[in-house]
Amino acid sequence: MNEVIQFIQVQSACNQPSTRAELPRAIYVELTDRCNLTCPMCRCSPVKGTVLPLPLFKEMAAALFPSAEFVDLRGWGESTIIPGFLDYLDVALAYPVKVKLITNAVVRKPLMWERLGREGITVGVSFDAATAALFRELRGAPTLNRCWPTCAC
């Protein structure tokens, strides 16, 4: 149970009454707190941290996603670095929900990015800086130019 509390935040999408039982309409799932960057302002680590186990994610999805309208696959870390990330995506897409992902867009997996676009996933990209020098200082890696090809998918 502590794993569930640690990895998921559940909140209602709005204050309007729901016709769908009493379950939340918006689900925010913390998939991981691992990251591929070393931003000085962030608590994440590229080597420490955990990943929400896929079986637990499936269990949560079965309990919450049928009544939801919106599922956000996010994390304090970078969800796209999770081995088998597309398995998590498949689980979410098995339900009639709008799926969103927040990412730093640095991971070089062109087929994954293309699939996210094809599936109509809302992808939010976190930049923090518009120049390569400031990006390197804030993100701990010279990765600004790696983001642009991802955003073009």
General description of the model:
By secondary structure, this protein is an alpha/beta fold. The chain has a single domain (2-151), classed as Aldolase class I (TIM Barrel). Helices cover 33% and strands 16% of the residues. The chain has helices at residues 2-7, 54-64, 85-93, 110-118, 132-139, 144-151, and strands at residues 8-11, 26-30, 70-74, 98-103, 122-125. A 5-stranded mixed sheet has the order 1-2-3-4-5. Helix 3 links the parallel strand 3 (70-74) and strand 4. The radius of gyration is 16 Å and the shape is globular.
Structural class: alpha/beta
- The name CATH uses for the topology is TIM Barrel
The number of strands is 5
Task: Please tell me the total number of domains.
Answer: 1
Mean pLDDT: 79
Task: Report how far apart the termini are.
Answer: 38 Å
General form: globular
Order of helices and strands: HEEHEHEHEHH
Radius of gyration: 16 Å
- Indicate the percent of residues in helices: 25-40%
Named CATH architecture: Alpha-Beta Barrel
What is the beta-strand fraction? 15-25%
Give the class-level CATH name.
Alpha Beta
Main sheet properties: 5 strands, mixed
In brief, what are we looking at here?
The chain is α/β, with parallel strands linked by helices and 153 residues long. The chain has helices spanning 2-7, 54-64, 85-93, 110-118, 132-139, 144-151, and strands at 8-11, 26-30, 70-74, 98-103, 122-125. The protein has a single domain (2-151), classed as Alpha-Beta Barrel (TIM Barrel).
